[in-house]
Design a protein that fits this description.
Number of helices: 8
Oligomer: single chain
Order of helices and strands: EEHEEEEEEEEEHHEHEEHEHEEHHE
Shape: globular
Strand order of the largest sheet: 2-1-18-17-15-3-13-14-16
CATH superfamily of the largest domain: QueA-like
Structural class: alpha+beta
Helix content: 10-25%
CATH class of the largest domain: Alpha Beta
CATH topology of the largest domain: QueA-like
Length: 373
């Protein structure tokens, strides 16, 4: 772990975002029930310790803090089983993690292969011996992948060739792309639990779950609606870069990965209506928050948007759309920990994390939740 650099302002020193996490605090599997997680509530307007509640308390907590009509924004992207295993002509094993969201593929007919379809994509390729440019791998389905070009950090430009429906192929032979820190292979339960209950099948393409949304059940959503909260959705295809550590000692020098965002017109209208009435916008997860703040940076106002965002939110950033955030607990030295520190203040966040550790909260993707109001 990095130590703070005395020559860099504390809020911008990577070492200021370090905390010691015992291995047993990493939630390697989900809670027995989706809404069975705990909820740490950090009120930015108070100086006292955070409140220790349960996730099922969320509707009541929000109702006490915000007026009826406040708007909740969630990311409806769907995680695909993006990790597939194949073989080279030599017989060597190939592991592919497909990074390009399926709805964003530019699909064409393969000119020399009958009813086969083609598309260029980005992915991570792992082999025992380095694959050569132009080499192909075959999979246990009508699917082959040709390596076109190698890029930085293991990313490769690929040509996918397949017959039929690619999403069905991935569902048949793919594995859920669990975060590396879980240190286990996926199982049948992850197909359901590493997915929000409100994901949109037409938005399949994330390689990591928008994890703050994993806690929601239809019953929790019904309770929120009963208390007058609105609900609207955005799409952000969560990329593998969400796990990329910040490597720069001065965090301002970090280059953020880009992710594709879609803010539909209905959501933009709902946000504008809430803001016009002075009602807050509560984001479910950092991906929803990045979507809205990325939209505002690109457009200069709240309106429909579709495109990539590489917005990097650090202390000192002025949030233009987001008023409150529901999130999970993030990795040390991560851009997500830095982002929540921009919202609540680095010192307050690090104190809250220390309290969560002392109270034996569970951390990371399958862990407990935190509400910043």
């Amino acid at each position: 772990m990095t130590t703070p650099d005395k020559d860099i302002p504390q809020d911008f020193s990577l070492g200021s975002y370090v905390y010691e996490l015992p291995q047993e605090r990493i939630a390697r599997r989900p809670a027995d029930a989706r809404d069975g997680s705990r909820l740490l509530v950090l009120d930015r307007g108070q100086n006292g310790p955070p409140m220790d509640l349960n996730f099922t308390d969320l509707p009541e907590v929000l109702a006490r803090r915000f007026p009826a009509g406040a708007l909740i924004i969630a990311n409806n992207s769907r995680v695909i089983p993006a990790r597939v295993f194949g073989r080279r002509k030599t017989g060597g094993r190939v592991e592919l993690l497909l990074l390009t969201p399926l709805p964003l593929l530019a699909v064409t007919a393969c000119s020399d292969a009958g009813d086969w379809l083609c598309a260029e994509a980005e992915g991570l390729v792992r082999t025992a011996k380095r694959m050569k440019q132009g080499e192909a791998a075959e999979f246990d389905a009508p699917l082959r992948v040709v390596l076109l070009e190698r890029g930085e950090y293991g990313r490769c430009r690929l040509r996918l060739e397949w017959q039929g429906d690619l999403q069905s192929i991935m569902n048949d032979i793919g594995h859920m792309p669990l975060p590396p820190y879980l240190e286990r292979e996926d199982d049948a339960g992850d197909r359901e639990r590493y997915q929000t209950t409100y994901n949109d099948a037409a938005k399949a393409g994330s390689v990591a779950a928008p994890t703050a949304g994993l806690h929601f059940t239809p019953q929790v959503r019904e309770a929120l609606a009963a208390k007058g909260f609105g609900w609207a959705e955005v799409t952000l295809y969560v990329g593998y870069g969400t796990f990329s550590p910040v490597r720069a000692q001065d965090i301002r020098e970090h280059a953020m990965h880009a992710e594709h965002v879609e803010v539909p017109e209905a959501t933009a209208l709902a946000i504008r209506a809430a803001k016009a009435k002075g009602l807050p916008v509560v984001c479910v997860g950092t991906t929803s928050a990045r979507s809205l703040e990325g939209m505002f940076r690109a457009c200069g106002e709240v309106r429909a948007f579709a495109g990539d965002t590489d917005i990097y939110i650090t202390p000192g950033y002025e949030f233009r759309v987001v008023d409150a955030l529901l999130t999970n607990f993030h990795l040390p030295e991560s851009s997500l920990l830095i982002m929540v520190s921009a919202l609540a203040g680095r010192a307050r966040i690090m104190e809250a994390y220390a309290a969560a550790l002392a109270r034996e909260y569970r951390f990371f993707s399958y862990g407990d939740a935190m509400l910043i109001v």
